[in-house]
Write a structure and sequence with these properties.
Elements (H helix, E strand, L loop, with lengths): L2 E4 L9 E7 L6 E2 L4 E6 L4 E5 L4 E6 L6 E3 L3 E6 L6 H8 L5 H15 L4 H18 L3 E3 L9 E7 L6 E2 L4 E6 L4 E5 L4 E6 L6 E3 L3 E6 L5 H9 L6 H26 L16 H10 L17 H6 L4 H6 L1 H11 L15 H16 L2 E9 L1 H11 L8 H15 L5 E3 L4 E3 L5 E3 L1 E3 L2 E3 L2 E2 L7 H16 L5 H4 L4 E5 L18 E15 L2 E15 L5 H16 L7
Parallel strand pairs: 20-24, 24-25
Antiparallel strand pairs: 1-8, 2-4, 2-7, 3-6, 4-5, 6-8, 9-16, 10-12, 10-15, 11-14, 12-13, 14-16, 17-26, 18-19, 20-23, 21-22, 25-26
Helix pairs in contact: 4-5, 12-13, 12-15
């Protein structure tokens, strides 16, 4: 009997998935454990394996198509098995009609005798249907729930290059990170939808991979014009292709001029997204750059220290001259540079704007005497397996205080307020393009050494853009610490759906009054931002009092 496969929920925030690539076609035999498809969730691209044997009888959408969680994804069964009832049952009359409408049209055609009417209707529908089923067409994938467009950070293949399945085609900058897009088939890269640095909307044409002689112009016209490949539309891609081929020539020239250089990397090159982007901007071929990172990974430092040969230097001369011209601008001349907004920065702007203007914020600031914490940290680090920071102590104290004040550890859900029994603390980490918030899970049950190890690991992963969706999902409270940057006090915007966020300033040595005398003391200011829909002033103040007592007597948080 045929088995229905629904779109799985692959993350706690996922509401829909995008088919990055089908690895099986309708009619293919599928075995248990075979890779069916790659599904782009709100945070990452994941592989979906088959859990049974059978023949793939139906797919819910083509490459680049979106499906809501629990929508019909595929049907597996026996060859020739009738699955029309299952399609109708799970499609609710929406998705099913498209595949089934094509079948009846063919069946009614012989019955109607006048073959000329169907023949007239066929050309209008044919191009759209052909494009939808073409494996050569690669659309811009949806790599996060908030992504509406992607920026090409850099192409790894040029037009005319041979592409193999699994090879990296391009680096795509999303709102969360820069991700590598791998090819899911063999062929030749015949068309690029945008150059490095340009934007492409989700589900717009990214590239075409196929065999030599494929009519690229017809495909481009059909995709961009909804299937109406007019002579004007067909001419446009030709006009676009000419400059692209011309642009490819300068790229090829440095490669020919560099035979004297030693090739350091062959095959797939491992480099951080930032290093790839910098290399693309500087015209540096990564196969000549020796990486200093783990397993030879190329980092930003390697690009900065790379000494290009005469050919690349000549290629970069125009850029150098342009910079020199800018630097020598006459005094008093108005000058500026417009920098495109990164996808991450767009998402930060959108989400924090929504948080600030929808959640009624109020702020509570408290001064904490850190003398005992400073002394305790010195003693702890004498025997601790890893160096403990003040931030680690703040996380531990916060987790302990949250156990006593569960209202602070809550989430606003619209019609409900969720009081979380677990304590997952998000720690804001600054990266080049913005801010990421990895989560220390069950922080109240972890030692200072465990917290310190996790935070350092998260910080390294964030800067290398290696954080996974599981690393930043599920926080119940957030801490943002700018003390290491010399900031004494600030207010933070709540990271929804959390009800509160703690802004931590630096430790300052100032004169304080103790026992009636003025003595030097170490103080730290913290500010709690609260969502007034969930937390009242007295509740927030009580939490801060508990946090203050734990940091002023650090032994209490170890009990």
């Amino acid at each position: 009997m045929a088995e229905v496969i629904l779109m799985p929920r692959l993350s706690d925030t996922m509401t829909e998935g995008v088919i990055a690539a089908w690895h099986k076609k309708v009619g293919d035999t599928v075995k248990k454990g075979d890779l069916l498809a790659e599904i782009e969730t709100d945070k990452a691209t994941m592989e979906l394996e088959s859990y049974q044997d059978g023949v793939l009888l139906h797919i819910g959408t083509q490459n680049g198509g979106k499906l809501q969680v629990n929508d019909l994804l595929a049907i597996l069964g026996k060859q020739g098995e009738d699955v029309s009832a299952l399609i109708a049952q799970h499609s609710g009359g929406a998705a099913a009609p498209a595949p089934e409408a094509a079948a009846p049209a063919k069946e009614e055609k012989p019955a109607e005798k006048p073959a000329e009417k169907p023949a007239e209707a066929a050309p209008a529908a044919k191009p759209a249907a052909d494009v939808a089923s073409m494996e050569e067409v690669v659309l811009m994938p949806r790599l996060s729930d908030t992504m509406t467009e992607g920026v090409i950070a850099g192409w790894h293949k040029n037009i005319g290059d041979a592409v193999k399945k699994g090879e990296v085609l391009a680096d795509i900058e999303t709102d969360k990170a820069t991700m590598e897009l791998e090819s899911y088939k063999d062929g030749i890269l015949l068309y690029q939808g945008a150059k490095a640095g340009e934007k492409i909307q989700v589900n717009d044409l990214l590239c075409i991979i196929g065999k030599e002689g494929l009519d690229v112009n017809a495909i481009v016209a059909a995709v961009k014009n909804g299937g109406s490949a007019t002579p004007e539309a067909a001419a446009a891609p030709k006009a676009e292709e000419a400059p692209k081929q011309e642009a490819a020539a300068p790229q090829a020239a440095p490669a020919q001029a560099q035979p004297a250089q030693e090739v350091v990397n062959e095959g797939r090159i491992f480099a951080s997204p930032l290093a790839k982007k910098m290399a693309s901007e500087k015209g540096i071929d990564l196969k000549y750059v020796k990486g200093s990172g783990d397993n030879g990974r190329i980092t930003k430092v390697d690009i900065d220290n790379y000494k290009p040969s005469a050919a690349p230097a000549a290629a970069s001369a125009p850029a150098t001259q342009a910079k020199a011209a800018t630097a020598s601008a006459p005094v008093g001349q108005v000058s500026f540079e417009d920098v495109p907004v990164s996808q991450m920065r767009k998402t930060i702007a959108k989400r924090l704007g929504e948080s600030l203007f929808t959640a009624p914020h109020f702020y509570l600031t408290m001064v904490i005497d850190m003398d005992a914490a400073v002394a305790a940290r010195t003693r702890i680090n004498e025997s601790a397996p890893i160096k403990i920071s003040f931030n680690d102590m703040v996380i531990k104290a916060t987790a302990t205080a949250l156990k006593q004040h569960p209202q602070i550890n809550s989430s606003w859900l619209g019609e409900q307020i969720r009081h979380n029994h677990h304590i997952n603390i998000g720690v804001a980490v600054a990266v080049e393009d913005g801010l990421l918030v990895p989560v220390v899970r069950f922080a109240d049950n972890k030692s200072l050494s465990q917290i310190g190890t996790e935070v350092k690991d998260f910080a390294k992963k964030a800067k290398d853009k290696k954080l996974q969706p599981a690393d930043w999902e599920g926080s119940t409270f957030t801490i943002s610490n700018l003390g290491m940057f010399g900031i004494d006090e600030f207010t933070a915007i709540i990271n929804q759906p959390n009800a509160c966020i703690l802004a931590v300033g630096g430790i300052s040595q100032v004169p304080v009054v103790k026992n009636g005398q003025i003595v030097p003391g170490n103080i730290m200011k913290v500010t709690l931002s609260c969502d007034h829909r969930v937390v009242d002033g007295a509740t927030g103040a009580a939490f801060l009092q508990t946090l203050k007592s734990l940091l002023e007597e650090p032994l209490r948080m170890l009990v």
